[in-house]
Design goal:
The protein contains 24 helices and 10 strands. Strand 9 and strand 10 form a beta hairpin. It folds into 2 domains: 330 residues, Up-down Bundle (ABC transporter transmembrane region fold); 181 residues, P-loop containing nucleotide triphosphate hydrolases (Rossmann fold, 3-Layer(aba) Sandwich), CATH 3.40.50.300. Helix 2 packs across helix 15, helix 5 packs antiparallel against helix 14 and helix 10 packs antiparallel against helix 12. It is 60% helix and 9% strand. By secondary structure, the chain is an alpha/beta fold. The protein starts with a helix and ends in an 11-residue tail after the last helix. The strands form 2 sheets. The protein has a 6-stranded mixed beta sheet with strand order 6-7-8-3-9-10, sandwiched between helices.
Length: 637
């Protein structure tokens, strides 16, 4: 039902998509020009082998009658070889430049699709399956690229080639050519009217592929859990169902296109009857020489061998248009040509948009950032009820705010709201005196560091996870080392087989949960390196570490960003946690309950208030003491 609905609602605009992707043609304009030069040269010489073959035949017949010399026959044979080289050498150049241009177009489309998706609002990211995005960015762009390749390459290999052959055939014998080529318009009409079927079936096949990829992606991500629960066969059955649906959709498309191919070929070859019947009579009557007739048949054969691809080209472009309709909502605007390096359009392998990218954040200001939250109401996109309501507080520059509360009280929601990537239903959040939703990506990278609750890491080395794509070097390495020490990761790194270069595997499967959390914490600490972040938001940073490690991390954070640090190195810290060992050090503590502020104050005042905070703190203190890992902080009771 989902696939059928997506097909019915698809806005298939095949005739327009080639015009819409013109910016991608401009990025490879140099290669397209070189390929076009090769195509023009190839098609200019395309008729030479057949014509020279006919002349060689006539020369050989003349020699048999004593009307030509053996050297003339030899030169005629050599001319055939030269004519073939004049065609094939430009053909190789044309195909190289056009093929690399097409590969670059696909790479540019993928890069812009990823840029576009990463810039989506969180509401859209939360409602779009990752597998569907993977299918579009990978499979659908391949189909678009195939349509572009057919349009660009076959325009020279087939369309212009066929036009050249037709023009030569008409010059050789106009009446015979008109009769021989009369079925061609019928084939074009069939291709045009079959285009809507091709587009619809292509869209259905791509939608089915997206469902299957989503299913596989979800189950492979949860492969370990499925093994532990003994539910692997159920997962296989579900994937098999989606695979069968995809196979049926693909078979429907293949049946249609395969069925159209013999129709095109049959229509194109009907003219052979005319060529043999009328052309043979002209040779008998002497209106045509045998060599000219052989040359004509050779040219017509080459036309038939290629011309049936013209309607197939039309269908491939139509399929690309259907796939482009699925890719288009993902695409960011292509980078302007002016921002690209000089002559980059002639460079094979260059991906547009990479030139001049600097991932190193350059903050508009340094030092700690004040935070102000006023009458905030927050709900996750698509949720029916607010997670937070009537939340207001201020954190002075360089201060430390600690937030706690029961499970489901809105702690993580508040942390996510502070970094400005979710829209507010009401109220305002300001960082550095500016509404946080107005921060650009560069502003956020330079002034706000964030450790999410799930501590996600990526495949690659430890230092690559901390750098997150920024330029590496000796100067940056010192910041990485400092961040690792602050996150109490340095001892673990020393035990890794390759130190910071150790590969941690997909989603960090080769390291422990505590190590993943501390790698993510080091990434947050070094997020604005070589500067310090103005605001450091830590969401449950100690859930996977013991009390002693927690104490070391707290001490390191105070040393790096606390009151004793240089003014330009200090940071405002917002600590969200259900573990309260660090809370006595906070300038202010907020206790959330059911999405509202239940308590607010210092550690001392809240311990005297005999409320929820006191009960939680004392319970944790007794538990840690019973396990021999008592909270190493003085408690005011």
């Amino acid at each position: 039902m989902e696939i059928a609905s997506s097909v019915r609602t698809a806005d298939i605009r095949t005739s327009h998509y080639l015009r819409e992707i013109c910016p991608y043609f401009r990025h490879v304009l140099g290669e397209l020009i070189l390929g076009a030069i090769g195509g023009i040269a190839m098609n200019t010489a395309a008729v030479l082998p057949a014509i020279l073959l006919g002349r060689a035949v006539d020369r050989a017949l003349a020699y048999s009658r004593g009307e030509a010399t053996l050297s003339q026959v030899g030169w005629a044979a050599a001319a055939i070889v030269l004519g073939s080289l004049a065609t094939d050498v430009p053909r190789v150049a044309k195909r190289w430049f056009l093929a690399t241009a097409n590969t670059r177009i696909r790479a540019n489309l993928r890069a812009d699709a990823v840029r576009g998706v990463l810039a989506w609002p969180m509401s859209r990211l939360m409602t779009t399956p990752i597998g569907d995005l993977m299918a579009r960015i990978n499979g659908d762009i391949e189909v678009v690229g195939q349509g572009v390749r057919e349009f660009v390459v076959e325009m020279w290999d087939t369309v212009l080639f066929s036009i050249t052959l037709v023009a030569t055939l008409v010059i050789m014998d106009a009446q015979l050519s008109l009769l021989a080529l009369s079925p061609v318009p019928a084939a074009m009409l069939v291709a045009y009217f079959a285009g809507r079927w091709v587009s619809r079936r292509t869209h259905a096949a791509r939608a089915a592929n997206a469902v299957m990829v989503s299913s596989i992606q979800e189950r492979l991500t949860a492969a370990r859990l499925l093994r532990l629960l003994g539910r692997t066969q159920s997962a296989v059955d579900q994937v098999q169902q989606h695979s069968q649906a995809q196979a049926q959709a693909n078979l429907a498309l293949v049946r249609l296109r395969s069925g159209l191919q013999p129709v095109y070929a049959t229509l194109m070859t009907l003219g052979v009857i005319m060529v043999i019947w009328l052309g043979g009579r002209r040779v008998i009557t002497g209106a045509l020489t045998l060599g000219t007739f052989i040359a004509y048949i050779e040219l017509y054969r080459r036309f038939v061998d290629r011309a049936f691809r013209v309607p197939q080209l039309i269908n491939s472009v139509q399929s690309g248009g259907a796939a482009y309709e699925r890719v288009r909502p993902l695409l960011a605007s292509p980078p302007p040509i002016e921002a690209e390096p000089r002559y980059s359009s002639f460079t094979p392998g260059h991906v547009a948009g990479l030139a001049g990218i600097d991932e190193s954040p350059v903050p508009p200001c340094t030092g700690p950032a004040p935070v102000s939250v006023q009458d905030m109401v927050f709900a996750y996109p698509g949720a029916s009820a607010a997670v937070l309501a009537d939340v207001s507080f201020d954190v002075p520059a360089g201060g430390m705010l600690a937030i706690t509360g029961p499970v489901g009280s809105g702690k993580s929601a508040l942390a996510r709201a502070l970094i400005g990537i979710y829209p507010l239903q009401q109220g305002r959040i300001c960082v550095d005196g500016r509404p946080v939703e107005q921060f650009s990506a560069a502003d956020r990278a330079s002034r706000i560091a964030y450790l999410p609750e799930d501590s996600q890491v990526f495949s690659g080395a430890v230092h690559e996870n901390i750098l997150m794509g920024r330029a590496d070097g000796p100067a940056m390495q010192s910041y990485i080392d400092a961040a690792a020490r602050a996150a109490s990761l340095d001892e673990d790194v020393q035990g890794f087989p390759e130190g910071m270069a150790t590969q941690i595997g997909e989603l960090g499967v080769r390291v422990s949960g505590g190590q993943r959390q501390r790698i993510a914490l080091a990434r947050a600490i070094a997020a604005a390196a070589p500067f310090s972040p103005g605001l450091l938001v830590l969401d449950d940073p100690f859930s996977a570490v013991d009390v002693q490690t927690e104490a070391r991390i707290i001490a390191a954070l105070r040393e790096l960003f606390g009151p004793s640090a240089p003014p330009d190195r200090r940071a405002t810290i917002v600590l969200v946690s259900h573990r309260l060992a660090a809370f006595p050090l906070a300038d202010r503590i907020i206790v959330l309950q059911q999405g509202r502020i239940a308590q607010s104050g210092t550690h001392g005042s809240l311990m005297h208030a005999d409320g929820l905070y006191r009960r939680i703190f004392l319970a944790q203190h007794r538990t840690s003491a019973a396990t021999g890992q008592a909270m190493p902080l003085e408690v005011t009771t």
